[in-house]
Amino acid sequence: MSKPTDLVQGTVDLLILKTVAIEPMHGWAIAQRIRQLSKDVLQVGQSALYPALHKLEQQGWIEAEWKMSDSNRRAKYYSLTRAGRRALAKETNQWERLSAAISMIVRTA
Fold first, then answer.
1. Residue 28: CB partners within 8 Å, gap ≥ 6?
2. Sign of the CA dihedral 87, 60, 42, 77?
3. Phi-psi region of 41 (alpha: psi -120 to 50; beta: other; left: phi over 0)
4. In 3-state terms, what secondary structure has residue 75?
5. pLDDT along the chain (109 residues), means of 10
């Protein structure tokens, strides 16, 4: 049986897009925000986070800029692009359809 922290394939991209849509963030902050918003249920590790960030950047859905973090260290801050906003809307719609379908099956007596 899967653990609650196991993420459905493809959801990491959606979580990242939604998180950086709120405000630009560096990688560690993105992972922390996802953990906080999910009340510690979802934890995105570095091995999943950074490859996803790289892929989203290559797709043109996010862009990165080097800035100083709150701890006075250089960090790569990610923000959503116009294409990323369109992708977020599409991904959100697909997720809502998928999760509703799964819920219908799980709740069947």
1. 75
2. negative
3. alpha
4. strand
5. 54 96 96 96 92 96 94 94 97 94 90
Angle between helices 46-58 and 11-22 (to 10 degrees): 70
| Torsion sign across C-alpha atoms 23, 26, 29, 33 | positive
Cβ pair 45, 29 in contact under 8 A = no
| Domains of the chain: residue spans and CATH | 11-106 (1.10.10.10)
What's the confidence (pLDDT) of residue 63? 98
For 41, the 3-state DSSP assignment is: coil
